[in-house]
Design goal:
There is one protein chain. The protein is mostly helical. The chain has one domain (about 25-210): Four Helix Bundle (Hemerythrin (Met), subunit A), CATH 1.20.120.680. Helix content is about 75%, strand content about 0%. The chain contains 8 helices and no strands. The protein has helices at about 10-20, 25-45, 60-95, 100-130, 130-140, 145-170, 180-190, 195-210. α5 (about 130-140) runs antiparallel to α6. The longest helix is centred in the middle third of the chain and has 36 residues, at about 60-95. The termini are far apart.
Length: about 210
């Protein structure tokens, strides 16, 4: 098993990403980008808490930071889980198929692990989508000097959702359980409704404050 992400330097992570190794890949990158978005939200909160001009919203900002930090930890964990489930899936493809029984057992294992492999990026997408309301809450009320960081967080969160959904879709394409596939696609549809508009709304606020 590869070195856990939380034990790697940025240089090691990027070098591994650029190599021919199958992991890290798109799913774990989505998780890390979402975690970075959450980190930016938390940073803006840290730079807001304790400032006299923001005393009236401090309790709310603390709540936002707690939520952002929870999502950051979740996304970091999911990035690692994505790597681990890919390694498990690769192992199932190497199972014996010498006999009909072997082949049936192998196919069942592939289906089981592929289902989990679709669930992990789905959770990444949902966690990233959950960052959007936090960005909306801060965009109009944080210091103008750091409002661009909220814009970057919103862009990263939206890209994380879109990227994670691609990883869900590629796993769904190999599943035989059509009910699960249909239900998962319905979850994705519900998740992404209004997401682009929400992100654009945040960016509109950010740009107006930067230029105003």
């Amino acid at each position: 098993m590869s070195t856990p992400l939380n034990e790697q330097t940025i240089d090691t992570f990027l070098s591994n990403l650029a190599s021919s190794a199958p992991t890290p890949g798109g799913g774990s990158v989505a998780g890390i980008s979402g975690a970075m978005a959450a980190g930016l939200v938390s940073m803006v909160c840290s730079l807001t808490i304790g400032k006299k001009q923001f005393a009236e919203i401090e309790a709310e900002v603390r709540g936002i930071q707690d939520r952002a930090e929870g999502l950051r930890r979740e996304l970091q964990s999911l990035a690692q889980q994505d790597i681990e489930i890919f390694e498990r899936l690769s192992a199932t493809y190497r199972l014996s198929r010498t006999t009909d029984a072997d082949a049936a057992s192998r196919q069942a294992a592939i289906q089981k692990v592929t289902r989990v492999a679709s669930e992990v990026p789905l959770r990444i997408a949902q966690a990233a989508a959950d960052l959007m309301p936090l960005c909306t809450s801060l965009a109009s009320r944080c210091s103008r000097l750091i409002v661009s960081d909220i814009g970057v967080a919103a862009l990263l969160a939206r890209a994380t959702v879109q990227s994670a959904v691609l990883n869900v879709e590629i796993n769904l394409s190999g599943l035989e359980d059509k009910n699960f596939v249909r239900e998962t696609r319905a979850q994705i549809e519900d998740m992404v409704i209004g997401l682009g508009e929400e992100a654009e709304g945040i960016l509109e606020i950010v740009r107006s404050r930067i230029n105003g």
